[in-house]
Design goal:
Layout: H1 2-33, H2 35-40, H3 42-52, H4 57-80, H5 88-126, H6 129-135, H7 140-179, H8 183-193, H9 196-224, H10 229-261
């Protein structure tokens, strides 16, 4: 009996997971389908850009600065063993543009903006605002979901680029100003080694994918949350956990594809 109960429980979980994936795919399709209304009323997207992008600037800038400073300090100690201190700028720039910039910015975006989106939509559902919109023949996907989706997709690459830029500046402060690495070597080797298509563009592609996935997860969890305080709390937690795991898994897949293409 215990074995049958375990198998039944596993089957229930698998069926529920497959069902949620199907519902999420339908949710994504409807979001794309009703996005035209959002672009016709672009002020809705601009409003959400401020909420998800501008309000995340502080945490992105501070985290980028300290990540760059730590990367510069650790990189210098590593390169010093091989007499390659002048390559510090290359290491900092490639580490941030290729990997750390998109990934850490996406994790911070999921924690700050993604959780806020989930909580906001979940509370709208709990207070029956979404039901009121449907009664007034207002499509909640077009009015609530689509503007937030495109705001997240647009703001994520910009935040990742800002994170990388501030991180490089942090590496410069530690490597050149504090430690004394030659400034000309720091910048010239960086400019010579960082390729726009292979490095910068791949980082932008990563951030676009991360922004799409994180925003979709956040909106779906909020829209699917049970209309209770406990349900909204659980949906917010699932948003952060699921988004973080999705970012790390997608980072591996995208990196493998990009390196194979190179």
């Amino acid at each position: 009996m215990a074995l049958i109960k375990t198998i039944r429980e596993i089957g229930h979980r698998v069926i529920n997971a497959v069902w949620r994936i199907g519902v999420a795919a339908r949710f994504f399709f409807l979001t794309i389908l009703y996005s035209g209304n959002s672009f016709r009323r672009f002020n809705l997207i601009v409003k959400e850009l401020f909420s998800s992008g501008v309000m995340s600037l502080i945490i992105i800038i501070v985290a980028g600065l300290f990540v760059g400073m730590v990367l510069g300090l650790q990189g210098y100690e590593t390169l010093k063993r091989y007499g390659s201190e002048s390559a510090l700028g290359v290491m900092v720039a490639l580490g941030l543009v290729r990997e750390l910039g998109p990934v850490i910015a996406a994790l911070l975006f999921a924690s700050r903006a993604g959780s806020a989106m989930t909580a906001e939509i979940g509370l709208m559902k709990a207070t029956e605002q979404i039901s009121a919109m449907e009664m007034m023949a207002v499509n909640p996907i077009a009015r609530i979901v689509a503007p937030r989706f495109w705001a997240g997709v647009i703001s994520m690459p910009l935040l990742a680029a800002l994170f990388s830029a501030v991180g490089i500046f942090g590496g410069y402060l530690v490597g050149v100003v504090q430690i004394g690495v030659d400034e000309g070597s720091f910048w010239s080797q960086m400019q010579a080694a960082v390729d726009f298509r292979e490095d910068v563009l791949n980082g932008v592609i990563k951030s676009l994918v991360f922004g799409t996935v994180v925003t979709l997860i956040a909106l779906f969890e909020g829209f699917d949350a049970p209309p209770t305080a406990e349900g909204v709390s659980g949906a917010t937690t699932r948003t952060v956990v699921t988004s973080s795991l999705a970012i790390l898994m997608l980072d591996f897949v995208l990196t493998a594809i990009m390196f194979r293409g190179a």
